[in-house]
TrEMBL record:
Cofactor note (record): Binds 2 divalent metal cations per subunit.
PANTHER family: PHOSPHOTRIESTERASE-RELATED, PHOSPHOTRIESTERASE-RELATED PROTEIN
The organism of origin for this protein: Rhizobium pisi
Protein name in the entry: Esterase
Classification via InterPro entries: Metal_Hydrolase (IPR032466), Phosphotriesterase (IPR001559)
Keyword Protein transport attributed: no
Annotated signal sequence range: none
Amino acids binding Zn(2+) 1: H22, H24, K137, D252
Chain residues that bind Zn(2+) 2: K137, H170, H198
UniProt record similarity statement: Belongs to the metallo-dependent hydrolases superfamily. Phosphotriesterase family.
Length: 304
């Protein structure tokens, strides 16, 4: 039986409902060499972000996927604190972002050392938090992978192949996604265990379809950040060409930012529930399809 690995332990599908597959509780987009990088008082983060979690709980959201990875301020201890304060499961990644958001230790680590690090986080625990990483989050340069990004991806593919973890990557160009899938398959893993994050940024819709047809997940994670008509039309277009069973929807919102006074002002995770889903229903998308997009697909993508 597959489970979602969360801050509150493994969760079966029967324990869950709607899942948001791409959000942030805490993120620092400064590079890791900057003073104060990823530093914050845990109670300040809980004070700012717990109310945002409580809002989506009241809307029927049952879990959230944290997409802050190594290099952009991942703080698994903070995710855990927010999770415990709200009794709400959060799925936290292992992995590392793209250049220049790469810590020095990652630059100097071998592929084998990177693989072992990710494997431990996926199978034992992240640091000393007591919970396992639920997935692997990476990124690639807009115009193609660097040698360092390729090293991280190869290590991730080998760690994932041993755990059935999904690999998600912030990748803007569809052709770069195809290159990533080639590498993953060359390392002995599968395209259907890959999420093309920010698929909407590839404006050639043929690439959206090609990635889904190859078996990977496509993710439209600009709900509430782009115009509602634009997002709804893109979702319906994907449904019409048969990509519904490989499609994920989310906001890419939040979050506590330690570079801003008191963490800044968070952007709610509510727009999908309160605006987009009703709009899709108004346009003729049936309830079963909406449940598939928001309940079934995220679980199938992240569970292992």
């Amino acid at each position: 039986m597959k489970h979602l690995r969360t801050t509150l332990g493994p969760k079966r599908k029967s324990e869950l409902g709607m899942i948001l597959p791409h959000e942030h509780v805490f993120v620092d987009l400064r590079t890791p060499d900057q003073p104060g990088y990823a530093e914050a008082e845990i109670e300040d983060v809980v004070r700012l972000m717990a109310p945002e979690i409580e809002r989506i709980k009241r809307l029927g959201v049952t879990a959230l996927v944290e997409c802050s990875t190594g290099g952009v301020g991942r703080r698994a201890d903070i995710d855990l604190a927010v999770s415990l304060a709200t009794d709400f499961p959060i799925v936290v990644p292992t992995g590392n972002y793209r250049e220049p958001w790469i810590p020095e230790w990652v630059r100097h680590a071998s592929e084998q050392e990177m693989e072992a690090w990710m494997l431990r986080e996926l199978t034992v625990q992240i640091g000393e938090t007591g919970f396992q990483a639920g997935w692997i989050k990476l990124s690639a340069g807009d115009d193609g992978m660097t040698a360092l990004e390729t090293k991280i991806l190869r290590a991730a593919a080998r760690a994932a192949a041993q755990t059935d973890a999904v690999i998600g990557s912030h990748t803007i160009r569809g052709r770069v996604v195809m290159d990533q899938l080639d590498i993953i398959e060359a390392e002995g893993y599968r395209a259907d265990r890959f999420i093309s994050i920010h698929t909407q940024e590839e404006k050639d819709f043929a690439y959206n379809v090609a990635v889904a047809e190859r078996g990977a997940w496509i993710e439209y994670d600009h709900v509430g950040r782009a115009g509602d008509d634009e997002v709804a039309e893109l979702v319906i277009k994907a449904l019409e060409v048969g990509c519904g069973d490989r499609l994920l929807l989310s906001h890419d919102r939040g979050w506590f930012d330690p570079a801003l006074p008191m963490g800044g002002t968070p952007k709610p995770y509510t727009h999908l529930s309160t605006v987009l889903l009703p709009e899709l229903k108004r346009r003729g998308v049936d309830d079963a399809t909406l449940i598939g997009l928001t309940h079934d697909n995220p679980f199938e993508a992240f569970a292992r």
